[in-house]
Specification:
The chain is α+β, with helices and mostly antiparallel strands. It contains twelve helices and 19 strands. Helix 4 packs across helix 5.
């Protein structure tokens, strides 16, 4: 579970980290009239993704009129597909230097890792690629509840190469590092991050930003903490990861979905590769489908086949949900082919084929982008599904022209995938010739 910045700051404050004065969180422009404000101040869009600053989600107005105009525009806009519904107002703090500080876990070993850098306020991933010597890391192998002084002092010594060597600053840095670590352990977080942790001109160390991702598996133990910052422990919050536009759409509709491509909204496709979207019959089958697409691609197509997503329809999806799954993938700009498989147990093959055909008919009628679909279905309600498919192809052949579904077990799924990929490359070549 991700927390908004203002929620994370409330937690950091509980653990002794200094934060800017919080003036309030608003959802409507009129609410600013009830607030006593002094300028300059910070206006921050509350969205559960990174890159707000670059996207215009953090502003520093110098007057009430400027603040109102900024807030009005923010509440009418979105960042990477996420509408801005809440805005944090807080005191503006002068900045002398910026530090990056985080406590997280190594995804391979689950050991705790403390990270610090004097290059705060910018993309830390880019710093790690271009100037790794500017980043200090320490792995904590014993899962200690509190951070040892020697480790915190080692981080402070590293950071002090770029900052004033005044004892009071070093002591504040040490306390901030230990406090962040303590927060991470006590709230059972996956990450606690401050970027930037700022040094002010009057030598104060303040958390200007705050990021916390809680471990979903331990939320039941954190109910008192969540209630203390105004979160209903039973409410469903966003996924741990930063969602793409397509993940957000799937979340809203109500089915698990993950993009396998980085930044899929603006992904640049390689011209010689075929990008395959997957609609499997379950989570395990979804993982198998990803692996099998890669295996078939490596074996027969020179490794030029790329699966773009993981998806799980869940048990017994409704007809509209099945249709929405195909709509989402056909709206995905990367998709060149859809591979689907319905192994009907709990789920009905009849509902599945009706939902798929409904999506294709709607898209054809609305002149929306159509993508070839290859797949197979076996199991529950197969006879009804076969009858409906045959009837639909006779009644509306045009929207179903590129629908290729094998009914029954006469062909294994690996061969269906191979046939589909071969057809996908054929269509791709025809499109390239047509220009």
């Amino acid at each position: 579970m991700k927390l908004y910045e203002y929620e994370a700051k409330q937690i950091f404050d509980k653990f002794g980290l200094k934060i800017p004065k919080q003036l309030g969180v608003i959802e409507k422009l009129e609410e600013i009239e009830k607030m006593s404000l002094s300028f300059p101040l910070m206006v921050k869009a509350m969205v559960l993704i990174g890159g707000r600053g670059k996207a215009g989600g953090i502003k520093k107005p110098n007057s009430i009129d400027e603040a109102k105009e900024i807030i009005r525009k923010m509440l009418q806009s979105s960042i990477r597909g996420y509408p801005i519904e809440k805005i944090l107002l807080e005191e503006a703090v002068d900045i002398s230097n910026e530090i990056y500080l985080a406590v997280t876990t190594d995804p391979a070993t689950f050991d705790i890792v403390v990270v610090a850098s004097a290059s705060g306020g910018i993309d830390i991933e880019e710093v790690a690629k271009t100037n790794p010597e500017l980043i200090w890391k320490k792995t904590i192998f014993d899962n200690a509840k509190e951070l040892e002084d020697t480790v915190a002092e080692e981080a402070v010594d590293f950071l002090s190469k770029n900052f004033s060597d005044k004892p009071e600053i070093k002591n504040q840095l040490k306390n901030a590092i230990k406090s962040l670590y303590s927060a991470f352990q006590n709230i059972e977080a996956k990450i606690c991050e401050i970027n930037p942790l700022i040094l002010t001109s009057n030598n104060q160390i303040i958390a200007a930003d705050a990021k916390i991702v809680l471990d979903d598996n331990s939320l039941y133990r954190q109910e008192p903490l969540l209630k203390s910052i105004g979160i209903d422990p039973q409410s469903k919050r966003h996924d741990v990861s930063e969602q793409t536009i397509f993940e957000a759409k799937a979340y809203k509709i109500g089915f698990p979905y993950l993009d396998l491509l980085e930044n899929p909204e603006n992904f640049v496709k390689e011209k010689d590769k075929l990008y395959v979207a997957l609609v499997p019959g379950g989570a395990g089958y979804g993982i198998f489908s990803i692996d099998e697409v890669v295996n078939v691609g490596d074996r027969y197509f020179e490794g030029k086949v790329v699966p773009i997503n993981f998806m799980d329809s869940g048990g017994g999806p409704s007809l509209s949900k099945v249709a929405d799954m195909f709509h989402l993938l056909m709206d995905h700009p990367t998709t060149g082919l859809i591979i689907t498989s319905r192994f009907g147990g709990i789920s009905s093959c009849d509902i599945f084929i009706r939902g798929l055909i409904m999506a294709l008919r709607d898209r054809h009628l609305q002149k929306r982008r159509m993508i070839p679909v290859f797949g197979r279905m076996v199991g529950t309600d197969l006879a009804a599904a076969r009858e409906y498919l045959e009837k639909a192809k006779k009644e509306t052949p045009d929207p179903l022209e590129d629908l290729h579904i094998v009914v029954g077990n006469q062909k294994i799924m690996a061969d269906v995938i191979r046939d589909g990929i071969e057809y996908g490359f054929k269509i791709k070549k025809q499109q390239e010739i047509r220009g």
